[in-house]
Amino acid sequence: MRLFVALVPPPAALDALDAACAPFRAQRDDLRWTGREAWHVTLAFLGDVSDRSLARLEPRLERGARRHAAFGLSLEGAGAFPGPQRARVVWGGVSGDRKALGDLAATVTAGARRAGALPPDAGRKYHPHLTLARSREATDVRPLVESLSGFRSAPWKAGEILLIRSRLQGNPRYETLGSWPLSSG
């Protein structure tokens, strides 16, 4: 099954981002906008994971989450992959305690590797973001990225990690398989 581990911002942060993006949805019908219910900050994309690896992964995620204290984040700004002039993905940025976020992502990746669920992008620099839209063709999104550059949600505490199954038939659908709290400090 296709899995990833993520943080999900609270509804208030998602409400603010949704309101900031709303004017652009009608203007940019060349983009496939990601539904708000799918918004998350990926810690590790695991790809296809066997049932055997899944059974070994879950306790590692639980132990890993307990080793990290909850930390503050905000959603802030926007960008694009590979770049705003020829974008395939438009994303919302993440600010706050990015060191704690990167450390948590590294712990999740290491636990996945030990469980036999080596992330296909292991070794790639971690770039926290929330995917807002995709494009089949490279497209110029500089005005959109510039307009969202001043966006910032209220701060929130990242307090749990989620293991999520992704089903790609038609529109992607996500199912939470487990969640584990970070330590309280």
Q: Report the helical percentage.
A: 25-40%
Q: What is the averaged pLDDT score? A: 94
> What is the tally of helical segments?
4
> Which stretches are poorly predicted, pLDDT < 50 over at least 5 residues?
none
Q: What's the order of the H and E elements?
A: EHEEHEEHEHEEE
Structural class: alpha+beta
- Approximate strand percentage: 35-45%
Rg value? 16 Å
Major β-sheet profile: 5 strands, antiparallel
Looking at the structure, what is the overall shape? Answer: globular
Strand order of the largest sheet: 2-6-5-4-7
Number of beta strands: 9
Give the termini separation: 33 Å
Could you walk me through the main structural features you see in this protein, from its secondary elements to its overall organization?
The chain is an alpha+beta fold. It has helices at 11-27, 51-66, 98-114, 142-148, and strands at 2-7, 32-33, 41-48, 71-81, 87-96, 129-139, 156-158, 160-167, 173-181. The chain has a 5-stranded antiparallel sheet with strand order 2-6-5-4-7, with helices on both faces. It has a 4-stranded antiparallel sheet with strand order 3-1-8-9. Strand 4 (71-81) and strand 5 form a beta hairpin. The chain starts with a strand and ends with a strand. The mean pLDDT is 94.
Labels describing this entry:
single chain, 9 strands, 185 residues, five-stranded antiparallel sheet, alpha+beta, 4 helices, four-stranded antiparallel sheet, globular
